[in-house]
Every structure is written in C-alpha cells, then in structure tokens.
Amino acid sequence: MIKPKPNIFLIYTGGTIGMIKDSKTGVLKAFDFKNLLKRIPELQLLDCNIETVSFSAPIDSSNMNPVYWVQIAEIIESNYHNFDGFVVLHGSDTMSYSASALSFMLENLAKPVVFTGSQLPIGDLRTDAKENLITSIQVASLQHLNKPIIREVCLYFEYKLYRGNRTTKINAEHFKAFASLNYPDLAESGVHLKVNHDYLLKPNLKKALIVHKHLDTNIALVKLYPGISESVLKSILNTPNLKGVILETYGAGNCTTEKWFINLLKETITKGVHIINITQCSGGSVSMGHYETSVKLKKIGVISGKDITTEAAISKLMYLLGNNMSSKRFKTMYETSLRGEMS
Questions:
Q1: What is the pTM of this model?
Q2: What is the CATH number of domain 7-211?
Q3: Is the N or the C terminus of the chain less surrounded, counting Cβ atoms within 10 Å?
Q4: Which phi and psi angles does 57 have, rounded to 5°?
C-alpha cells in the first residue's frame, strides 16, 4: 500500500523572504508569490503536495495587526480539513507576536502551523530563505501513522524549531534571529531532523478546532525605568477604554515601592483594568512576593505573568479580553498555561 503524501498549505503574508530589490532604487519590495516557488525548484523534490495562497496585498510585518491575524486564522480554518500542515511565511520583525497570537486563537489545534521567514530576500545569493522554507515544509510534513507529529504553532529559523509563543526576536542582523530562552527547542535541523518529542505540546485530539476571532486591543505596555514619573504613568493608565496593562518590571517582578506608584496601580485595578506583571529580562520568571519590592503588587491584585514573553503576554491579554469573563476567572486563566506559553 502506497503511503499518501502529506498535503501542506503555504500561506504568504509578506516579509523579506518574498522580496526582491528594485534594480533602479535598491529598495526591497514584495513580488509575485508564484515567483517564490519558481526560485526554489528544490520544493519539487519534497515528499509532499504543496498548495499556496498569498495575501492579496503582501505586507511588511511592521504593519502586522490583529486584523491580519484573523485573516491568517480564517485561511487555516477554511482549509483545516484538507491539509495536514500549514506554513506561514511572515516578516521576522513581528513574527513572534503573530505566532503567539495564532497559538491562542487556534484552540485544540491538532496540526502543525509553522511560521518562518528570512533575513535576506529569496533572490539574494547568500539567502537563508531556502533552508528556512524547505525545512519548515519538512517539519509540517512530519507524520507518524499518517498523523502529524507536531500539533502546535511553531516558529522555524536557522536550524531550530521553537514553540511560537516562547520566541523573541533577538537579532536584526544575524541569521540566528530568534531565541526561546525559557523553553527548549522542539527540533533541530542538522544532518538529521531531530525532534525533541518530550517538549512537544500534546493537545486533546478528541476536541474540535475552535478559532477565536475577537481580540481586544484596548491594552497598554509599560516598561518601568528608574525615574518614571507619576504624570506619564497616570496619562497611560487613564487612557479611555483601557482594559489591560502589561507591566514590564525589573528582574523577578520587582518595582519601585513609592506610594504614588502603588496607589496608582491599585486605583487602576479597582476600576476593573487588569495589570499583568512580566519581567524585562530576556529569560527568567516573575516571582511576586519573593522580594520585598514585589510584595505590594501581589497584595493589590496584580496578575503574575510568570515566565511569559512580552509578545505572548500581549496576545494572551488581547485574546482573554476578547472572551468576556469575570476578573477572578481572568486572573486564573491568565496565570494558567493555555498553550504551553508559560511554565
């Protein structure tokens, strides 16, 4: 019996991977997606069937926003039963945000959704685009007993497969642009494609895919710094319709203990605005109450983001706010790992 080839759906949103240089101006611009496949004839050698779709107007990832996240989610939803895996080509600048958002939007996902892109355009002699794209398709094609091995939203870049909602872009110049500092790699590409099965998400396969399309963007991100003023913080926290705030604190979740600061946060929480405490550090976790400088935050009801990344913290906040719930349930849900985004 001939084993059926996996069917992979390639979604092109834009980004450097699909850019070419304008010969006159030297400026990078998006080009027809069909040319992308022509430039990588090696794709014909892969042991899978590939179909493609492109955003009607490919975007630079700096312009990425929740409207486009819904668009990506809807493409996956409408093609979910016809394909075994999905590869999303995306600009690297906001890729971690998009991969995090899609992980929350695609509840009970039982197939791979692999985000990838490149630091150099596909037509460049030294491009990293070919390896990233070819291996991403191979990752999305991995099967055991005709069932996908990867069943979550991932990000593949420079020989490493990461859990999407654990990643952060750490470098604008190197091919190794991403890191997952609080969670091990899911797979590594070398002579062999080595999958770390113990670290893969294991969803309940009996549950049907639910696609969440309502994301609430009435949020703010505040990074603490020595000397932050009351007037600046007050103006942010008094933003009309504000519903949630991500507070990037120092170290293990510490902040100034000045009275005005704690009182302002307390007033904001009393008004029904959720405040989440995450660390400014690239790696590590918030541990409220561990130091005296975070005890007061815990007392006034600040939510612990534990070891979540800023990118995942933001998209998780938008997602939970979009699912209207009581403050108590919100706190419980936020402090619970929903898609493997926190330890």
A1: 0.94
A2: 3.40.50.1170
A3: N
A4: -125, 95
